[in-house]
Amino acid sequence: MKHLLYLLLVSQFVLFSCEKNENKASNLVFEKGNKVGNDKFTGTVHQAILGKIGTQTSNVTFEPKSRTNWHSHPGGQTLLVTDGIGYHQIEGKPVEIIRKGDVINVDKNVKHWHGGSIDYGMTHIAISIDHEEYPSEWFQPVSEDEYNSYIKSES
Known about the structure:
The protein is α+β, with helices and mostly antiparallel strands. Strands 1, 3, 4, 7, 8, 9, 10 and 11 form an 8-stranded antiparallel sheet that branches. A two-stranded antiparallel sheet has the order 2-5. It has a two-stranded antiparallel ribbon with strand order 6-12.
């Protein structure tokens, strides 16, 4: 119940902030953060940790073609897309095009990846439930061939 309330509060704040900022040159609701420099991502990705107590909340910005490796969250994850166009895929299912305003709920221990599309970057708020107790499990990168096979109409 506390996770649902937390998610509701964050969602309302993000939606309010998006409306408030729609006339600005930058569509970022929160700071872009630091460039992520590890082997869990492909391409240029920035992350700003917004909250870490139990449930980790991050603002993550992917440049075009940038993405996460395949990964899962033992506590589950919610993505709130705040800008751009990107991709999300659950293992064994077709890739989805995700856009500003989309909410993606990923169940516990479901292997997935997400990131910018071929032509556009994408920013989302990532809410990883019980992250301190159950950190993400990381797997192999999404290969260039695999990623390029997802090219679809993004309009």
